[in-house]
Design a protein that fits this description.
There is one protein chain. With about 180 residues, the chain is mainly β. It has one domain: Lipopolysaccharide (LPS) transport protein A like domain (lipopolysaccharide transport protein A fold, Sandwich), CATH 2.60.450. It has one helix and eleven strands. β8 and β9 form a beta hairpin.
């Protein structure tokens, strides 16, 4: 009888401990839970135009969606395309899948980034990368990522680049290869 009483008490004690553990799992944890930051507002099919000191159009950014985060001090863009003008004529366009616009007049573009020359006979026709940073007032585009630069009759692959759109100078940090082709 003592053995039966012992096993009965052991089963009851184990069951009550297990039950109390299960109930504790259902209670909300007192640990801080990280919440996702919500945008202050969202705009769709956004077009933002910038002008220089003389009132001439200097740039235009388009995006399918813009999410403004005041707390972070940034604007997140989906499918942004930024067109750079020279003498009121479009000269360059940089586009990507995603981007972040910072208040210090800088945009960081990520995923499928393409910088296209909209005028013929320039330094290069296209630059492709997974990430580019563009500083508006300096008109400098840079990245430390892999790049593919193509022009009339050539394609250059490398890593890291800095392009000054005003002086038309391109500095490739690490050259990986060049392919020349003769198109007739």
């Amino acid at each position: 009888m003592k053995k039966q009483l012992f096993w009965f008490l052991l089963v009851i004690t184990s069951s009550s401990i297990l039950f109390s553990l299960l109930i504790d799992d259902d209670k909300p944890q007192s640990m801080a839970v990280e919440t996702e930051l919500q945008p202050d507002f969202i705009a769709y099919q956004l077009i933002r135009t910038s002008f220089d000191a003389s009132g001439s159009m200097s740039g235009m950014i388009r995006a399918t969606q813009m999410s403004h985060f005041e707390q972070l001090g940034q604007i997140q863009l989906e499918e942004p395309a930024y067109t750079i003008f020279e003498l009121q004529v479009p000269k360059w366009q940089v586009s990507s899948s995603n981007g972040v616009l910072y208040p210090d007049d800088k945009v960081v573009l990520e995923q499928n980034v393409v910088l296209e020359n909209l005028k013929s006979g320039e330094l290069f026709n296209k630059l492709e990368s997974e990430q580019l940073e563009y500083v508006f007032d300096q008109q400098v585009i840079s990245t430390k990522q892999q790049v593919l630069i193509s022009g009339d009759g050539f394609a250059i692959s490398g890593q890291g680049v800095q392009v000054n759109l005003v002086t038309q100078k391109l500095q490739l940090n690490k050259h990986k290869g060049t392919v020349y082709r003769h198109d007739k």
